[in-house]
Every structure is written in C-alpha cells, then in structure tokens.
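Dig into these lines:

——
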Amino acid sequence: MFENTLQIKKLMLDHTSRCNLMCPQCGRVSKDQKINPGMPITDLTLQDYKIILEPFTNNKLDQIIHCGNFGDVIASPTFEETFLYSLDFTKTIRIETNGSARKPEWWINLANNGKEKLSVVFSIDGLKDTNHLYRIGSNFDKIIENATAYINAGGKAEWQFIEFAHNYHQIDDAEKLASELGFTNFTVKYTARFQDTKTQVETRKGNIVKNKDSHVSQDFSSIISQYKNFDDYVANTNITCKFKKDFRLFIDMDMRLWPCCWFGGPKYFADKKHTKQWKSFKYFLDLYGEDFNDMRKYGWSVLQHEFFQTYLERSWNNPNDKYKRIYTCGRTCGQKFEYSSGYGKNWNTKELNHAENRV
C-alpha cells in the first residue's frame, strides 16, 4: 500500500473505545442496544504515541485525525497528555466529537493549547428537539455551551450534520445557528449505514431513526438493477482505495494498523460471525495471525508485512485464491456506490462567513 512511512501524510486514530453516547448504528453498540461485548474498553497511551510518531520527527505529518469508530477521543483519560505530545509531529490536528463531554473550562484550555493547528468537528445532528434522537445520551445545551467556550477562546470549529428523516427540515436553522456562534464550516452529509440493513432502527429510548430518501437509496437501487445483488456488486466492482489516494492510514484503540477506518470495525463487531465483512477478515487473520498488525509488538515494521505490501492491492482488482477480495474494500471503495458519508455526493460542506454574525 505504502512502501515506507515517508509516503504517509495523514494518520487517522481511533484513540479510545470510551464514549458518553450510545448511538444505535455505532460499532460500540450491540443489536440489543447494549455495550458491544466484543469491543475492548481501552485507550492509546503516551508510549503508543511515541511509537506511532517517531518516524515523523523530522518529516511532519500533514494531519492527525481523531475519528470515532468506537469512541470519542475527548472521553479518554489519556487524551490530554497524548494530544500535547502529538503537536510537535504534525502540521494540523482534527478532532471529531459529539461535544457533550467535559466542562467549558476544559474546552477553553483545548483551544489555547491547540492554537492554529487544531480544528474540532462537532457532530450535531439537529437542534435541541432532534439531536438526541440518534445521538442517545447527548445534551444539546451542553454541546452548544462547550462549542461556544471553545470558539470564543479562539478555537476553530466545524458543525457536521447527518441528515435523517427526523431532522432534515432543520438544516437551514442549524446552519444559521452555526454561523451566529462562529463555526467556520457547516457540513451536511448522508449516511448509507442503513442501506443494507432494515430501513429504520428503534433505539433503546424508543426513538425510530431512519434515513431520509436521497440519492443514496436511488444509487443503491441502480446497483441492484445492474448486479444480482449488492454482494455481487461488492465482489465485482472496480476498487479505488480512498485512503491510499489520500496518503492516509488508520490505527485503532488497540494499537492495530489498518489500511483505513472501515477496516477498524469488523474485528470488534458484537455479532461478527454473522456479518459479511467478518468472513473475509477471518480469512486473512487465519492466514497471517491475529497479531500481524499489532504495532505494540512490531512498531512500523507492520507496514512491510505482506498484507500491506502485496495482499491489499492484489485483492482490489486482481484477486486470486490467496489474495482474496475483502468485502470491506468493495463496499466502501467500489466505484459505483458511495457508501461512506464523508465522500462524494454524500458530503456537502459550506464555508460560513461568521465574522459579521458572531455573538
């Protein structure tokens, strides 16, 4: 995938599996709306960061991205010391968070430490009467209080809004509020997480969550009309790796190196034996062993493993009996369907002119 660390420009980290929310389609939540029993409750440590960032001492990364596959980085007890340490190894840091944890004073301190390097993405899916319907356990007033403290302390913030059937009518009002509060960008995105499952989910709070009709369902229908089914599409579509194109790799909360964030889920799925992704994962894990990508054991030498150097690219568009296609790759990076919410037609970012409206 990459010959060496000099080719890597971005690192995406799922720093922790801790979070104060229980969103129904998150990997940390099982089908019965409880904590995923297959997920380790753990965090990356300062020693882990020393291993991860050592190659970038003189060749700084363009960006470190804290995503939320299983957790929210600001909920981690090891976040603050690792964040301060990482500042010297990258040009920018991006934190994606639900924003409802910590106190305003903490957010002020974050802005002061991050300065111009830091951008925080607040994932807020609606307003006070809707955000909590999917983001179970969130507190809208607390989020706005924290975001306001961070912004007023000089922090750069973005508002990210997942469009559902229950909140799409609030997009204009949310964008207006984002501008008034001083957010620099407002992003609306669709999610395809419901597309190959049932069309609605009932949360443990009794809320019904479903996608709003969009191009996602239309594109999915088009795929089904061209292929036997979605699995046939995944097995035969041409693949262009999004993370390779972006010079990016992913490290999970258990210090495992993966090609992308979508690879960071199946190993820890609650019901993985019955998921389509797990079958192909089990194949290469049986081939190479459960720990082949453990950076605590092998450091960056993991990148030289056959899986990264040969298997991946062969499996994309020239698979054989050994280098079998991986379901995750076909689903998320197939050329005819944009599964990810962060790319293509699923993603619409508007830069806000907040300077004149800021309160």
